[in-house]
C-alpha cells in the first residue's frame, strides 16, 4: 500500500461510507469535502497520510463519482486504509453504517485517537421536528459516539451547551470549531433601496423557518413592498404541508421561486441579483449560509437565537421569531448601507480545516 510504503509519520483514516453513497450535495457533503481538501494539504505538509476507511467493512460505493464536486474529493478519490493501519480516525459525516465495536477494538489494539464532528443534537433538543424513530436512532448513535470518541468537534458553543445539558457522562474533550464559507469575499451586486430581493438557502423542513419566511413575504406584499424571494433547498422531512404552501402560493414561479437543486455556481449567480439573505431557522447547530451569504456580498437577516448571536459579523440583522418582525427586519436590511468587509473578516472553511488539522496534529504528537 502506497501510504505505508512511503512511511508517513502517521496515517489517518476518514470514515467515508455515507459520503461515497451521496446522490446529491447538501451542507454536510460540502463540509466533508472541503475539510478533506484542507486536511490533505495541511497535514500532508507534516508528513501525515490520510485515506478513506470503512469501519463496518462494507464494499466501496462509487455513487459519488457521478457528482463532479465529490469526485474531486482528494480522500474519496484516494487510497483505502484499514483500521488496523491507522493512528487516528476522523468521522466528519453522519454515517449510516458505522461499526463502533470495530472502533473500540482498534482503540484497544493500537490506541488510535478518534475525532467525531457533531453538527448538532437537535433531534434530542427539539424532538417535535422529527419522527420518534429518528429521535431514537440519533440518541443511540450519539450515546455510542460519546463512548468511543476522544475528541468531539462541535460547530458552535450552542452545540457544546446542548451536549452538556443532556447530563450524560463521557470522557471525550469537546472542542468548538466554527465552520466557514467556501466563497471568496466580494462586494454587493445590488444597490440599497426599498426593493427587497431575498435569498434563502436551506433544506425545506419545518425547523428551518420557511413558514415564517412566507408569512414575512406575504406581509411585505400586502404592505406594497417591492419584494421577491428565492428559496434554494431540497425537500426534507415532515414538510408536505409546507411544500403545498410554496407551490400553491399565488406568486409561485413569479416573485416567489423555489429551486430544489442548485450547485455552488448557481447559488453565486442567483446571489448576485439579491441584496438580502434570510436564515429564519428556529433551531440550528451552526447555519452555514450566514458566512456564505456575507462573503457573497449580501446583508443577512437571521433569527434572534443564541447560535447566531455567537457571530459578531457586520451586515447581520436579527429578527424576532414572528413573520412581521422578520418582514420589517428584511426591509431595514435592504435599506441599510453595506459595511465594507475585509477578506479575512468572515470565517472560511480553510480556517475550519486549519483548526481541525491543528487539533489532530497536537494530539498525535503527544
Question: How would you portray this structure in words?
Answer:
The protein is an alpha/beta fold and about 375 residues long. The chain has two domains: about 1-180 and about 350-365, Glycogen Phosphorylase B (Rossmann fold); about 195-335, Rossmann fold (3-Layer(aba) Sandwich), CATH 3.40.50. It is built from 15 helices and twelve strands. The protein has helices spanning about 1-5, 15-20, 25-45, 70, 100-110, 120-125, 130-150, 155-165, 210-220, 240-245, 265-270, 290-295, 305-310, 325-335, 350-365, and strands at about 10-15, 50-55, 90, 115-120, 150-155, 175, 195-200, 225-230, 255-260, 275-280, 300-305, 315-320. The strands form two sheets. The protein has a six-stranded parallel sheet, sandwiched between helices. A six-stranded parallel sheet has the order 9-8-7-10-11-12, sandwiched between helices. Helix 3 crosses helix 15.
